[in-house]
């Protein structure tokens, strides 16, 4: 109900109240729809594991099992996300589940997103070199294994290599798609006199799964709710028909990087609005990442902006009458933090939201208009959280998991108000828990998957090499030099 949300409902003109109601009808996703989404999601997860494949890649990662908590050693970790590049040095200590970390963060320049492959690898090498020269000047680095977190869909026939399937998160760099991303990085590092070898190429979601399970044995799923969306979980090899030809033991566990931002690219079940359609149409990759474009942080501010532009154009004079709204017409001007700030405004008169609009958009909304934008932000944020829960629920249904912890990372999960609570409520509805039952599947803040997870997976890989389990390892000679 509108009245349950708005503080001054009686002061809102009828035409604005009607518009709020229209937005509620547009963005609300009820329990029945959530369950439909999850049922289709389960089928798509299965299809991705099949020989034929489907929209969701369901990438085999060659991470074969969880850590036991006693892994040891010092590792470099390189984390290339959507916004930042991070270089870490992680020491897994002899205390169970404990580690020390030293790290530096570098912003990914915007021009890199559409630059050249050479510029990308040179920039990464620059950052890694800076970090190493500061922390390891004149030291032999040949035995310092690198875990490389590359948070983009990659096909991995080996854990130490990966072929980029397609760019996501707004990246579109020529000459990288369809290529193995490890050799060009190692080549540039070698040219600079840095004899560093990639022991494991991982996705941040897989890293989140492994790092979280290092400190919590109930962790069964790792998720990212940030610039993009994704999940990873442990599957039995026997349930992955597309690797049946390798003849591996059916009960061997292998981590699957779902890359389920691509869920429902065929537009079968997701409740898309006209704003979602515009985002897809005008994106660098129309027809791809349908689920991500409705739930990820990169797009929430744009959905909000498009809804306001629609009101300005279709109902002139309804909002911001007589004001200059030209700034609002710039695509992707607003990000998820804009909506988060609106939702966090503690004042009944929404004075912080008023300041935000004046500062960023040069617009001074009236009190009723402030109520409308507050409700719109809530609706978009709530829809994202509820739909995001569908991916977790689908993995639980597919694996018959009745109770577990889910490790979650990403800016939307950690910074967007009420996201966690809204997702938890959606899970309750989807999985039909009784009102008296506690949450059986709990989504909680993850350990540092892209840093600690990368180090752990490098450690697990070297442990396997030592034990003679060589499935999914390509450069055996390089691995043995790291032992």
From TrEMBL:
<keyword id="KW-0067">ATP-binding</keyword>
<protein>
    <recommendedName>
        <fullName>Phosphotransferase</fullName>
        <ecNumber>2.7.1.-</ecNumber>
    </recommendedName>
</protein>
<dbReference type="Pfam" id="PF00349">
    <property type="entry name" value="Hexokinase_1"/>
</dbReference>
<dbReference type="GO" id="GO:0005524">
    <property type="term" value="F:ATP binding"/>
</dbReference>
<dbReference type="GO" id="GO:0006006">
    <property type="term" value="P:glucose metabolic process"/>
</dbReference>
<dbReference type="GO" id="GO:0008865">
    <property type="term" value="F:fructokinase activity"/>
</dbReference>
<comment type="similarity">
    <text>Belongs to the hexokinase family.</text>
</comment>
<keyword id="KW-0808">Transferase</keyword>
<dbReference type="InterPro" id="IPR001312">
    <property type="entry name" value="Hexokinase"/>
</dbReference>
<dbReference type="GO" id="GO:0006096">
    <property type="term" value="P:glycolytic process"/>
</dbReference>
<keyword id="KW-0324">Glycolysis</keyword>
<feature type="domain" description="Hexokinase C-terminal">
    <location>
        <begin position="220"/>
        <end position="460"/>
    </location>
</feature>
<dbReference type="GO" id="GO:0019158">
    <property type="term" value="F:mannokinase activity"/>
</dbReference>
<keyword id="KW-0418">Kinase</keyword>
<dbReference type="InterPro" id="IPR022673">
    <property type="entry name" value="Hexokinase_C"/>
</dbReference>
<dbReference type="GO" id="GO:0006013">
    <property type="term" value="P:mannose metabolic process"/>
</dbReference>
<comment type="pathway">
    <text>Carbohydrate degradation; glycolysis; D-glyceraldehyde 3-phosphate and glycerone phosphate from D-glucose: step 1/4.</text>
</comment>
<dbReference type="GO" id="GO:0005739">
    <property type="term" value="C:mitochondrion"/>
</dbReference>
<dbReference type="GO" id="GO:0005536">
    <property type="term" value="F:D-glucose binding"/>
</dbReference>
<dbReference type="GO" id="GO:0005829">
    <property type="term" value="C:cytosol"/>
</dbReference>
<comment type="pathway">
    <text>Carbohydrate metabolism; hexose metabolism.</text>
</comment>
<dbReference type="Pfam" id="PF03727">
    <property type="entry name" value="Hexokinase_2"/>
</dbReference>
<dbReference type="GO" id="GO:0001678">
    <property type="term" value="P:intracellular glucose homeostasis"/>
</dbReference>
<keyword id="KW-0547">Nucleotide-binding</keyword>
<dbReference type="InterPro" id="IPR019807">
    <property type="entry name" value="Hexokinase_BS"/>
</dbReference>
<dbReference type="InterPro" id="IPR022672">
    <property type="entry name" value="Hexokinase_N"/>
</dbReference>
<dbReference type="InterPro" id="IPR043129">
    <property type="entry name" value="ATPase_NBD"/>
</dbReference>
<dbReference type="GO" id="GO:0004340">
    <property type="term" value="F:glucokinase activity"/>
</dbReference>
<feature type="domain" description="Hexokinase N-terminal">
    <location>
        <begin position="20"/>
        <end position="214"/>
    </location>
</feature>
């Amino acid at each position: 109900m509108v009245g349950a949300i708005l503080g001054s409902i009686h002061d809102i003109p009828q035409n604005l109240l009607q518009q709020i109601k229209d937005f509620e009808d547009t963005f609300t996703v009820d329990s029945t729809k959530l369950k439909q989404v999850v049922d289709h999601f389960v089928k798509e997860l299965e299809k991705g594991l099949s020989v034929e494949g489907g929209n969701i890649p369901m990438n085999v990662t060659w991470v074969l099992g969880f850590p036991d908590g006693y892994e040891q050693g010092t590792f470099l970790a390189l984390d290339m996300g959507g916004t930042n590049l991070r270089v870490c040095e992680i020491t897994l200590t002899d205390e169970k589940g404990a580690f020390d970390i030293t790290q530096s963060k570098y912003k990914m320049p915007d021009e890199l997103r559409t630059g050249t492959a050479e510029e990308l690898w040179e920039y990464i090498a620059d950052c890694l070199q800076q970090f190493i020269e500061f922390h390891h000047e004149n030291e032999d680095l040949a035995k310092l294994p690198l875990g490389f977190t590359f948070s983009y869909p990659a096909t991995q026939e080996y854990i130490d290599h990966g072929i980029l399937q397609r760019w996501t998160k707004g990246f579109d760099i020529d000459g990288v798609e369809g290529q193995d991303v490890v050799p060009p990085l190692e080549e540039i590092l070698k040219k600079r006199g840095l004899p560093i070898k990639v022991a494991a190429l991982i996705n941040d979601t897989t890293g989140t799964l492994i790092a979280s399970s290092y400190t919590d044995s109930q962790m069964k799923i790792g998720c990212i709710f940030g610039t993009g969306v994704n999940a990873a979980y442990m599957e039995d090899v026997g349930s992955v028909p597309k690797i049946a030809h390798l003849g591996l033991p059916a009960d061997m566990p292998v981590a699957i990087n779902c890359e389920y931002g691509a869920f429902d690219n065929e537009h079968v079940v997701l409740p898309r609005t006209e704003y979602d359609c515009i985002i897809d149409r005008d994106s660098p990759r129309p027809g791809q990442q349908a689920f991500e474009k409705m739930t990820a942080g990169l797009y929430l501010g744009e959905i909000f902006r498009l809804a306001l532009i629609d009101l300005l154009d279709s109902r002139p004079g309804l909002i911001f009458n007589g004001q200059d709204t030209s700034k609002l017409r710039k695509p992707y001007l607003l990000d998820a933090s804009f909506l988060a700030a609106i939702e966090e405004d503690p004042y009944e008169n929404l004075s912080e939201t008023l300041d935000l609009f004046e500062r960023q958009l040069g617009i001074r909304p009236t009190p009723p208009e402030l109520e409308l934008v507050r409700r719109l932000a809530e609706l978009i944020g709530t829809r994202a959280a509820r739909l995001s829960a569908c991916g977790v629920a689908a993995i639980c249904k597919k694996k018959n998991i009745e109770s577990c912890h889910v490790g979650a990372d990403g800016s939307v999960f950690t910074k967007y108000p009420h996201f966690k609570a809204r997702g938890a409520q959606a899970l309750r509805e989807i999985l039909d828990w009784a009102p008296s039952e506690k949450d059986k599947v709990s989504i909680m803040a993850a350990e540092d998957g892209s840093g600690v997870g990368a180090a752990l997976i490098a450690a697990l890989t070297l442990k396997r090499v030592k034990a003679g389990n060589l499935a999914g390892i390509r450069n055996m000679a390089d691995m043995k030099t790291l032992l």
